[in-house]
C-alpha cells in the first residue's frame, strides 16, 4: 500500500476543501467524509491495526497528525462561518434610530377626576379631610337626618331613584341624591370615636343620582359638599372659606362673591353664593368686574349654617356645636374652569372628547390651565 492517502497531497487537498467550504452544511459533509465512521481518515486509522510494527511506527504519527490538522481546520472554519453568519444577520437587522418611534397609545385623565383632585388639594390646604360613603343609601341618611322627614316636599323635588326592597331596618333604599349622607355618617362616626364628637372639617365628593335627563341634567352627576363643625362657627367663616376656595380653584385673586338669602331644609340660615364673571374674548369667565361690560353674577354654590336638627341627627349637642356646610356640582365647576359647553358629553365615553379636554396621566393636579387664567 502506498502512502498517498496520508501524504502531503492528501492533507493539502482536504485542508483546501475545508477552507473553501461555503457554509456549515457543506462543512458538515466534509467532516463526515473525512472523520465520520466510514470516513477516509477513520479508514486510515483502522489500517494501523493490520500493519507491521515498523510501518505502524512510521505511518502512525502521520495519520494521527493528519486527523488532528483536519479536525482543527474544520473547527476553525466552523467558527469563521458562524461569525460571518452572525455579522450578516447583524448587518441585516440593524435598527435605524433616525426612524420616528411608533406612537404609544396614551390614556388621559377625565376632567371630572382632575377637578376632584384639584378640590381635594385645595381643601386639604385648609385642613379638610376627604370623606366617602355608600352610593346606595337608606332614606334616613339621605333625607330624614337632613331635616327632610317623610312626605317633606323637598323629597319629591329630588327625583329619587328608589329600590323596590327595604333594608333590614325597614328603611327605604335609594341611590343617594346628594353627598350629604356621607357627612351625616362622618359626624356619627366621629361621635363614636371621641366623646366630644367634634370639631370636624370634611369634604365629600362623589357620584349622586337623580331621575332627570336633558341638556343640563344627567341621571348621574358629581357633587362635592363640605362641612365644618366647631364651637363659635359663623357665616364669616363660611364666606372666607368659599372665597379662598374659589380664588384657588379659578386661579384668580379678583373673584367677588355675592351671598343671597335662600332656603335648604338642612341649613338655617341658607345662602346662595354667586360669583362675579366678566368677558374675555367674548367668553364668560369667572372673575373680574361683574359690573363691567358683559359681566354679571353666576350662581355656583349653595350653603348655610347647619340646621340645629341636623347637628342633633349627627349625634351632637347643637347648643355646643355650630357649623357651616356647602354644596356644588363638580361637573359644572369643570365646565366653568375648562370651557366645556355640553354636560352630556362628560359621560358619553367618546375618546375624542377626552383627547380634547382630558389631562395627561402624569399631570399632578396642579391648579393651572383654566380658561380664565390670564396668559
Ligand atoms: C347645592 C346646595 C348644599 C349642604 C349642601 C349640608 C350637609 C350637611 C348639613 C347641612 Cl351634613 N348641609 N349640605 C348645605 C347647603 C347647600 O348644597 O346647591 N348643592 C348642589
Structural features, described:
- With 375 residues, this protein is an alpha+beta fold.
- It has helices spanning 8-20, 24-35, 40-47, 53-92, 111-125, 139-142, 153-157, 180-193, 235-250, 308-313, 330-338, 351-357, and strands at residues 129-130, 136-138, 162-166, 172-175, 200-209, 220-230, 257-264, 267-280, 283-286, 296-306, 322-329.
- Helix 1 (8-20) runs parallel beside helix 4, helix 2 (24-35) runs antiparallel to helix 4 and helix 5 packs across helix 11 (330-338).
- The radius of gyration is 43 Å and the shape is elongated.
- The termini are far apart.
- 31% of the residues are buried.
- 2-{3-[(4-chloropyridin-2-yl)amino]phenoxy}-N-methylacetamide (2NL) is lined by residues 180, 183-184, 223, 225, 227, 264, 266-267, 302-304, 306, 310, 325-329.
In brief:
The protein is α+β, with helices and mostly antiparallel strands and 375 residues long.
Major sheet: size, sense and barrel closure?
8 strands, mixed
Q: Averaged pLDDT, please?
A: 90
List the ions, cofactors and other small molecules found in this model: 2-{3-[(4-chloropyridin-2-yl)amino]phenoxy}-N-methylacetamide
Global shape = elongated
Contiguous low-pLDDT stretches (5 residues minimum) are none
**Which secondary-structure class do the elements indicate?**
alpha+beta
**What is the element string, with H for helices and E for strands?**
HHHHHEEHHEEHEEHEEEEHEHH
Q: Which radius of gyration do the C-alpha atoms yield?
A: 43 Å
> Per DSSP, what share of the residues sits in E-state strands of 2 or more residues?
15-25%
In whole angstroms, how far apart are the ends?
A: 103 Å
Count the DSSP helices: 12
How helix-rich are the residues, as a percent range?
25-40%
Question: In total, how many beta strands?
Answer: 11
Amino acid at each position: 500500500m502506498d502512502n498517498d492517502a496520508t501524504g502531503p497531497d492528501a492533507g493539502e487537498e482536504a485542508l483546501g476543501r475545508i477552507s473553501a467550504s461555503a457554509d456549515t452544511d457543506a462543512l458538515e459533509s466534509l467532516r463526515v467524509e473525512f472523520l465520520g465512521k466510514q470516513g477516509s481518515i477513520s479508514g486510515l486509522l483502522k489500517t494501523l491495526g493490520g500493519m507491521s510494527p515498523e510501518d505502524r511506527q512510521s505511518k502512525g504519527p502521520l495519520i494521527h497528525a493528519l486527523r488532528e490538522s483536519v479536525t482543527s481546520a474544520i473547527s476553525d472554519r466552523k467558527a469563521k462561518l458562524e461569525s460571518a453568519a452572525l455579522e450578516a444577520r447583524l448587518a441585516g437587522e440593524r435598527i435605524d434610530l433616525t426612524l420616528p418611534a411608533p406612537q404609544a397609545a396614551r390614556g388621559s385623565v377625565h376632567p371630572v377626576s382632575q377637578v376632584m383632585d384639584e378640590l381635594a388639594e385645595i381643601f386639604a390646604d385648609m385642613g379638610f379631610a376627604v370623606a366617602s360613603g355608600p352610593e346606595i343609601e337608606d332614606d334616613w341618611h339621605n333625607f330624614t337626618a337632613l331635616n327632610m322627614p317623610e312626605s317633606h316636599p323637598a323629597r319629591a323635588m329630588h327625583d329619587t331613584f328608589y329600590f323596590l326592597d327595604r333594608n333590614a331596618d325597614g328603611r327605604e333604599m335609594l341611590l343617594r341624591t346628594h353627598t350629604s349622607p356621607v357627612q351625616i355618617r362622618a359626624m356619627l362616626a366621629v361621635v363614636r370615636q371621641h366623646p366630644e364628637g367634634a370639631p370636624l372639617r370634611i369634604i365629600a365628593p362623589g357620584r349622586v343620582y337623580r331621575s332627570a335627563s336633558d341638556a343640563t341634567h344627567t341621571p348621574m352627576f358629581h357633587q362635592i359638599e363640605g362641612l365644618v363643625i366647631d364651637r363659635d362657627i359663623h357665616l364669616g367663616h363660611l364666606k372666607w372659606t368659599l372665597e379662598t376656595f374659589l380664588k384657588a380653584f379659578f386661579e384668580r385673586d379678583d373673584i367677588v362673591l355675592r351671598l343671597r338669602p335662600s332656603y335648604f331644609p338642612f341649613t338655617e340660615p341658607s345662602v346662595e353664593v354667586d360669583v362675579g364673571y366678566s368677558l374675555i374674548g367674548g367668553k364668560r369667565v369667572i372673575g373680574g368686574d361683574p359690573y363691567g361690560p358683559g359681566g354679571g353674577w353666576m350662581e355656583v354654590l349653595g350653603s348655610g349654617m347647619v340646621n340645629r336638627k341636623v347637628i342633633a341627627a349627627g349625634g351632637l349637642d347643637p347648643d355646643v356645636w355650630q357649623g357651616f356646610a356647602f354644596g356644588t356640582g363638580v361637573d359644572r365647576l369643570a365646565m366653568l374652569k375648562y370651557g366645556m359647553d355640553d354636560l352630556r358629553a362628560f359621560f358619553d365615553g367618546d375618546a375624542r372628547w377626552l383627547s380634547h379636554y382630558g389631562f395627561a396621566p402624569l399631570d399632578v393636579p396642579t391648579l393651572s390651565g383654566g380658561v380664565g387664567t390670564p396668559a
